[in-house]
């Protein structure tokens, strides 16, 4: 009986060794490396839907601590990638919109401001935007260190950049030459940015219910709101004399 048991084990081991030594067909190898190219149309549609739902999760970042934020934390992009792929392109939108408003509706917004003045205003605003995101990233990082939260400067910079997106997009309302409408949309963008900070700081800190983290969240919101309010004043100053 022991001899038969030993023979059975040896046969099983030889079978496994043979399977490992047998090369896979090329089609199988391609399936392992690139399964999406060989999936059925039904499976491919299901995969596409799952990816689109992941992208749709980012719209929940304003009201959720996890939807969208978890994917963002898992990706963990470095500061350089965030700057070139998010901060720099989107910060160009307000600068371009200021130039557009000055060119197309300059007589409405600031009739005393020349084209060179609008160009200078756009350049100053662009530099102030980039500096504000950098400053807010540093502030978030320093506050996180004080609260003994494990957070790198890259994480703080990422959160500052994500929170600034509604403010950048709100500048698109300058396509409509209505100062009241522009101000209302800018305020809504600021509120949306505060919502992102409110849900983003506790999530990226990893402590949603700690009182000290909640206090840090409110402090970041006040500092960020004040910084972007100063940026908005830079645009409004030339319009006060209209």
UniProtKB/TrEMBL annotation:
A GO CC term assigned to this protein in UniProt: membrane
Taxonomic path: Bacteria, Pseudomonadati, Pseudomonadota, Betaproteobacteria, Neisseriales
The keyword Transmembrane appears for this protein: yes
Chief location: membrane
Protein name from the UniProt record: YIP1 family protein
Swiss-Prot/TrEMBL keywords: Membrane, Transmembrane, Transmembrane helix
Pfam families xref list: Yip1
Organism: Chitiniphilus eburneus
Domain Yip1: 67-205
Domain of life: Bacteria
Entry's localization field: Membrane
Record's bilayer topology term: Multi-pass membrane protein
Membrane-traversing stretches: 86-106, 118-140, 152-169, 175-198, 219-240
């Amino acid at each position: 009986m022991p001899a038969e048991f030993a023979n059975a084990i040896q046969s099983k081991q030889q079978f496994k060794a043979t399977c490992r030594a047998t090369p896979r067909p090329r089609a199988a190898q391609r399936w392992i490396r690139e399964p999406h190219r060989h999936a059925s149309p039904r499976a491919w549609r299901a995969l596409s839907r799952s990816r689109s739902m992941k992208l749709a999760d980012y719209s929940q970042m304003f009201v959720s601590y996890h939807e969208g934020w978890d994917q963002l934390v898992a990706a963990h992009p470095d500061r350089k990638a965030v700057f070139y792929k998010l901060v720099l392109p989107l910060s160009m939108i307000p600068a371009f919109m200021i130039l557009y408003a000055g060119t197309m509706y300059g007589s409405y917004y600031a009739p005393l401001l020349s084209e060179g003045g609008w160009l200078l205003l756009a350049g100053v605003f662009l530099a102030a935007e980039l500096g504000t995101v950098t400053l807010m990233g540093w502030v978030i990082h320093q506050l996180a260190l004080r609260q003994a939260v494990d957070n790198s400067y890259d994480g703080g910079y990422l959160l500052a950049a994500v929170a600034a997106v509604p403010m950048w997009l709100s500048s698109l309302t300058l396509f409509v030459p209505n100062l009241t409408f522009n101000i209302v949309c800018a305020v809504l963008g600021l509120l949306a940015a505060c919502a992102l900070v409110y849900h983003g700081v506790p999530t990226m800190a990893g402590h949603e219910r700690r009182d000290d983290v909640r206090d840090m969240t409110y402090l970041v919101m006040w500092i960020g709101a004040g910084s972007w309010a100063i940026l908005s004043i830079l645009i409004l100053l030339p319009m006060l004399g209209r």
